[in-house]
Amino acid sequence: MKRFLLFASLCLLAIQAQAQERITYPVGEIHTENGYDIYNPTTTVWVDLHVVQTQTIAGPYARYAQKFLGITVPMVNKSKWEVIGAELNFKICPTFPQKAPQLATDTPDMNCAKGFDKLGIDRLSSELLSTEEMARQAAERIFEIRKYRYDMITGELGEPTLGAGLSAALDELKQMEDALLEMFTGKTATQTTTIRYEVDASRKMAILCRFDQNHGILQSDNMSGAPIVVKFSPIAEETAAEPTPEKLKGATQTFIVAEPMLTSVIVDKDVLTELIIPVFQQGQTITLPIKR
Questions:
Q1: pLDDT at residue 157, rounded to an integer
Q2: H helices then E strands: how many in the chain?
Q3: In the chain, what is the greatest distance between 2 CA atoms, to the nearest angstrom?
Q4: Are 83 and 212 within 8 A, CB to CB?
Q5: In angstroms, how far is the first alpha carbon of the chain from the final one?
Q6: Which three-class secondary structure string do you get for 94-151?
Q7: What is the DSSP letter of 62?
Q8: What confidence score (pLDDT) does residue 17 get?
Q9: How would you label 230-246 residue by residue, b for 16+ Cβ within 10 Å and e otherwise?
Q10: Mean pLDDT of 211-236
Q11: Mean pLDDT across 140-162
Q12: In angstroms, rounded to a whole number, what is the distance separating the alpha carbons of residues 102 and 43?
């Protein structure tokens, strides 16, 4: 048995030297001192796709922003998605196929931007006013806060506030201004989500999913989105065919030589990432003589 392992190791070294350092494993039943092992080498490939969602909620006074503040703001709620990157990973499984490891992540929250409270921050009394009038008063408070902050900094209020007290007062005023300004400009929030896909490494190309900037990640059969694909391209020249078992005398052993594949993740013709992966599912099967 030891002679067999030694001879097999020498065969593997020779194969690797001739095939650009390719990874090689035996196939089938391999006898050992304690019995035998079954080898069925495969390569597990998976992709981690990183997607960013940006969600905007229009402010309740959005249509009055131009009139009272002179600015243009979003008028309707909207969400946009963007694929910002991808990572390729693989694992060599000598004996039997294995699944990609589970991705520890939270379920994505597709409503990442919180809405506005029913009782707006600008409401300072129970008086019922029209939306336009409330927008006008909110705009006036914004300018009042800015004027008050300017007076604090320049000392126009009389005795200036110094040190930590000034800093705390300015921060509080900034928060009040931002809260009022959001009533016009709306709220925007972003969230990054990672989605893991296991790839069928026996194919030359596989569609992971589809993508649309207005709807995010879609199922692979949803034709409304651009496909996100994984492509396997061989990087080595074809090697000469090895002798078949019929032409070999004596005991033989079958091996699989993993094929080095340039693996690319592509979305809408843009390459997100690439990695050279030794793929056993697309490798070459060879048979060599052995000594027992």
A1: 63
A2: 4, 11
A3: 106
A4: no
A5: 6
A6: CCCCCCCCCCCCCCCCCCCCCCCCCCCCCCCCCCCCCHHHHHHHHHHHHHHHHHHHHH
A7: G
A8: 40
A9: bbbeeeeeeeeebeeee
A10: 92
A11: 79
A12: 16
- Rounded CA separation 39/94 (Å): 6
pLDDT range class, residue 168, cuts 50, 70, 90: confident
CB 225 within 8 A of CB 249: no
Enumerate the H helices of 155-202 as residue ranges: 163-185
The DSSP bridge partners found for residue 257 are 24, 284
CA 271 to chain centre: 14
Supply the pLDDT for residue 198.
Answer: 95
pLDDT > 70: what percent of the chain?
A: 75
Please count the residues of the chain: 292
pLDDT for 274 beyond 80: yes
Over 70: is that where the pLDDT of 217 sits?
A: yes
Give the tokens for residue 93: 């499984």
Query: For residue 257, which of 286, 217, 218 has the smallest C-alpha distance?
Result: 286
Residue written as token pair 């080498």:
41
Give the residue among 247, 253, 280, 283 at the shortest CA–CA distance from 11: 253
Q: What is the reported pLDDT for 240?
A: 46
Residue 269 pLDDT greater than 90, yes or no: no
Distance CA 146, CA 151 (A): 9
CB 200 within 8 Å of CB 206: yes
Residue among 170, 180, 30 nearest 94 (CA):
30
- Residue 39, φ and ψ in degrees, nearest 5: -110, 130
